[in-house]
Structures are given as C-alpha cells and as structure tokens.
Amino acid sequence: MVKLAKNPIPHELLCALLESPHESIILVDKEGIVRYISHAAAKFYQVDDQDIVGSHIHKLNPQSRLPEVIKTGRAEAGSVLRMKGKERIIARIPLRDAEGNVVGAFAKLVFWHMKRAKELVRQTEVLEERLTYYEKELQNLYSSRYDLQLVVGESPPIQDARRVATQAAQSDLSLLITGETGTGKDLFAHSVHRMSSRHDKPFVKVNCGAIPQELFESELFGYEAGAFTGASQKGKPGKFELADGGTIFLDEIGEMPLAMQVKLLRVIQEQEVERLGATKPLKLDFRVIAATNRNLKVMLKGGTFRQDLYYRLNIFHLHTPPLREIRRDIPRMAYQILSSLRTGKRVLPAKISPEVMQLLMSYDWPGNVRELRNILERAAAVAGGEALQEEHLPPDFLENLSHAFRGSGAPPNLKRARELAEKEAIKQALEYTGGNRTQAAELLGIHRTGVHQKMKKYGLE
C-alpha cells in the first residue's frame, strides 16, 4: 500500500504526471463513472474530455471491460483494444482503498502502435532463441566428450578398469582415477559421467595443476561483486556452481595445495559452497571424480595430501594401466588411433606392417597412449596412403627403442632390436589367442606358415 507524504503533492506535479504526452489514462469510480480522462486518451477516442467526465465508461466505449475489472478485482494486462479501425495494447488495473476494497479502476495505454508491440514480441523471441542457443553451447562446452566404447583392449587390467567404471556410473559416490600420464584417465572420467544418471547435466573439468595457488578458491567457489581488488563488478560463479546437477572432474588432484584440500573436503561433505565475499553458502548437487598420476599413498606419508580427503575421494578406485602392462592390446589401439585420424580429405594408411607392429609392441611407452598417438600421427602423415613401414617412424622413436634394447644388454643395432621385437610380438600374440597359430598369424598380419617358421627360429615351439 502506497503511503502519501505528510505534505500534499503539489497540484501541478499531479497534473504533469497525469497529462504526460506519453501516457493515455482513463480513471473510473466503482460505479464505472469516468472521473478523469487524459488529453492523450481523449484524442485517441476523438472526444472532448469535458463531455465524457461524469458519464459512464460505456458511453465512451460500449465494450469497455473496466466494470468487469471492478467487479472481479483482477487486473488485465496486455489486452488488445480495437477502436475505430485501430489496435492498441492496454492494461486495466483495479484501485483499492486502505482496507483493500475496490473503489474504482483505471485503464492505461501500454503501446500506441501494434507495430511496436509486435517488434517487442519479435525481439523477445530472438532473445529466447539466443538464450536457448547459448544454453546448448554451454551444455556442449560442459558435457562429456567420450564414452566407454573408445576403451579398446581385452587384457585383464583393461577389463577391470571397464568393470569399475560401469559400477561407479551406477552410483553418485566419489571416484578416484589413478594412472600414469597418457593412460586415459580423462577418457574414463568422461565415460563414467556419460553412463550416469547425470549424463544430461554439466561435466565441468578443473585442471588443479594449471591454477595459480592464489586463485584456487575464487576459481572453485566463485566470488561476489567487489570481493577483492580486481574482482568483476558482477561477481563470478565458481566451477562447483557450474557443475550443479552434474559432475565436477578434479584432474591432477595431487597438485592441489594443502590449505585448499581442507576447504575442498568441507565442500564435498556438505555439498555447499560459499563464494568469496558472500554471507551465506549455496546448497548444490554435484558428483566428484578426481584423477592423478601421482602416488597419493606416498603423499599421505609425507604429509602433502590429507588422509581424510583421500578417503572421501577414494570410495570407488579405478586404475588405468600403462601400455607396457597391456602389450597385447597395442594392435587394437594402434588401428583405432589410425581410424580416428581419418578426417576430411586426408589420405592415411589403412594398414600397419608386421615389422612396425612388432616394434610398437616391444617398446615400453613411457608416455603411454598419448605417446602412441603422437608416433602414429607423425608416421601416418609421412606414409600418406601406404602401409606404415619402419622408415615412416620418427627417428627419435627408433633411437629410444634402440637405447631400450641396449639397456637390456642387447646389441645397439636395429636388426637385433627387430628380432627381439618380433619374438616378443609372437609371444604376445600366442598368449592372446591361447596358442591358436592361425589367429595369431591374423593378428600379426603374416601367414600361418610364417608364424610356425618364426616360432621354430626363436625356440617358441
């Protein structure tokens, strides 16, 4: 209820308000008698205001709904008024006294021209379309990119990782992914989110190793306007707010400062964050997946990682194996990588020669799948449409392979390296196929007779 000031409003101010050239107003009492009509309204109806004041509103407009508004006490906004071939958008508002009784009503012109109303509708529709577009773009930005189908391989460590990922996806409990650099921790994190009930909600990745220590809190939890020097005047939501309803992926969690680990633990336990400069926390709903290539158990003993946070994150534990532990899966991975490189009009090899495959299976791959992809991408670019041969492999790779054999006591020449690689590849193929020479030959890309001859040569019979 509006309260008038002690001193009455000057008459000229009231007149200036009611007689604004931009306003068109008609005021009636509870009986529907016109008590006031502005010059703009009189001009629209093409009447003399002196002739209308004191008359019933139906004399001015037989279809007027002001009596209905007085009767129901409900406002009508955005109605179309058609009068003398013209259309206008008006609002009808009931007037009440201090006790809430309806004592009259007034009609006010909202738009003089329908074109303006239609333009506003058009602009609103454009804004709604843009909002929908940006929501989709944001969803694409914060959505999972990979699924478990991209995880190839049948070795026991890979099967174990897939099993844990499937189990974790059926729960909202925290998941800790550990493994060396380049073993696909990111891929598994995306896959678990995509298989979960939160798959249509945001997937927000945070690289804990790339955030400066002094910005950790504002990046994760956000801040209010003017919370600190240089802060945006609009404030900023943190990564946890962006992940509300979905999953937050804390990559390289082992790089998080000890002081931030305490705050992170509280946020995970309470499921709420407090922006910098805020006076009360925000209740959120998120699932946490963390990953690291560091040995957190060693860090626990050294006091650089909190034990309580470790147990909070490590409810489900998924380990991504290095390539040297799953050598028999390298052929499948290599061909999958080659297939993924075929985009656009690029001409790339469709086959890897047996000699090259043997070298790939014999290398220890300190960079794991990421290094394998790098090697194959470079080799494929050199080979063009031909099958990958040894001469297409990067010199650094061949040199590293030679050093590896040299460190094991083998002569530092590629011929011996190839022989050792060939022997190892045949052993792996036979193990994988359960001793089936035909299947091993198919896997190695050579004839069954060739497998038999090489088995005899290397004493593998």
From TrEMBL:
<keyword id="KW-0547">Nucleotide-binding</keyword>
<dbReference type="Pfam" id="PF25601">
    <property type="entry name" value="AAA_lid_14"/>
</dbReference>
<dbReference type="GO" id="GO:0005524">
    <property type="term" value="F:ATP binding"/>
</dbReference>
<dbReference type="Pfam" id="PF02954">
    <property type="entry name" value="HTH_8"/>
</dbReference>
<feature type="domain" description="Sigma-54 factor interaction">
    <location>
        <begin position="151"/>
        <end position="381"/>
    </location>
</feature>
<dbReference type="InterPro" id="IPR058031">
    <property type="entry name" value="AAA_lid_NorR"/>
</dbReference>
<dbReference type="InterPro" id="IPR025943">
    <property type="entry name" value="Sigma_54_int_dom_ATP-bd_2"/>
</dbReference>
<dbReference type="InterPro" id="IPR003593">
    <property type="entry name" value="AAA+_ATPase"/>
</dbReference>
<dbReference type="InterPro" id="IPR002078">
    <property type="entry name" value="Sigma_54_int"/>
</dbReference>
<dbReference type="InterPro" id="IPR000014">
    <property type="entry name" value="PAS"/>
</dbReference>
<dbReference type="GO" id="GO:0043565">
    <property type="term" value="F:sequence-specific DNA binding"/>
</dbReference>
<dbReference type="InterPro" id="IPR025944">
    <property type="entry name" value="Sigma_54_int_dom_CS"/>
</dbReference>
<protein>
    <submittedName>
        <fullName>Uncharacterized protein</fullName>
    </submittedName>
</protein>
<feature type="domain" description="PAS">
    <location>
        <begin position="10"/>
        <end position="65"/>
    </location>
</feature>
<keyword id="KW-0804">Transcription</keyword>
<dbReference type="Pfam" id="PF13426">
    <property type="entry name" value="PAS_9"/>
</dbReference>
<dbReference type="Pfam" id="PF00158">
    <property type="entry name" value="Sigma54_activat"/>
</dbReference>
<dbReference type="InterPro" id="IPR027417">
    <property type="entry name" value="P-loop_NTPase"/>
</dbReference>
<dbReference type="GO" id="GO:0006355">
    <property type="term" value="P:regulation of DNA-templated transcription"/>
</dbReference>
<dbReference type="InterPro" id="IPR002197">
    <property type="entry name" value="HTH_Fis"/>
</dbReference>
<dbReference type="InterPro" id="IPR035965">
    <property type="entry name" value="PAS-like_dom_sf"/>
</dbReference>
<keyword id="KW-0805">Transcription regulation</keyword>
<keyword id="KW-0238">DNA-binding</keyword>
<dbReference type="InterPro" id="IPR009057">
    <property type="entry name" value="Homeodomain-like_sf"/>
</dbReference>
<dbReference type="InterPro" id="IPR025662">
    <property type="entry name" value="Sigma_54_int_dom_ATP-bd_1"/>
</dbReference>
<keyword id="KW-0067">ATP-binding</keyword>
